[in-house]
Design goal:
Helix content: under 10%
Strand order of the largest sheet: 1-2-11-3-4-9-10
Radius of gyration: 15 Å
Oligomer: single chain
CATH superfamily: Umud Fragment, subunit A
CATH class: Mainly Beta
Structural class: mainly beta
CATH topology: Umud Fragment, subunit A
Largest sheet: 7 strands, antiparallel
Number of domains: 1
CATH architecture: Ribbon
Number of helices: 1
Distance between the termini: 25 Å
Mean pLDDT: 85
Shape: globular
Length: about 140
């Protein structure tokens, strides 16, 4: 399936107007970038694109701007470069700890300040995933000849 990215939540790895190829997988791993159908309260007519940061059975915590999985901070060189060293991860609600249920994954956008993700709606069902990004093409600037 081909998908044209229009969101900014995965910058800098994926930019608006990038063309992406998606493949449905039997399972997903931490670090995979996936497109999924968002919860009904967040529906915008197109799939969301986020990075898998935790799998079923794992505990996720947001603490002092860091994401911890199983108590260990994630090394996240892909996070949007905001303030030193990277844009901190914050939570707007009361929940700062999640246990990912069976059959679900925890997803975050790389541009944390510009992302509706599992911090807002919790882990997502694997069944809602349309596919994993397996190929990306940047748009060519200028007119098509």
């Amino acid at each position: 399936m081909l998908f044209r990215m229009q969101q900014q939540s995965m910058e800098p790895a994926i930019q608006p107007d990038d063309l992406l190829a998606l493949a449905k997988m039997a399972s997903y791993a931490r670090g995979d970038i996936v497109a999924f159908n968002p919860p009904a309260d967040f529906a915008q007519g197109e799939p969301f694109l986020k990075r898998v940061v935790a799998l079923e059975g794992q505990k996720v915590q947001i603490e002092n701007g860091d994401v911890l999985v199983g108590g260990a901070p994630l090394d996240e060189p892909y996070v949007y470069p905001g303030h030193e060293p990277n844009e901190p991860t914050t939570v707007t609600g009361d929940t700062q700890t999640w246990l990912v249920p069976t059959g679900e994954v925890f997803v975050l956008g790389d541009h944390r300040a510009n992302s509706a993700d599992s911090r807002l709606f919790g882990p997502i069902p694997v069944a809602s995933i349309v596919g994993r990004v397996v190929w990306r093409c940047e748009p060519k600037p200028g007119p098509v000849t």
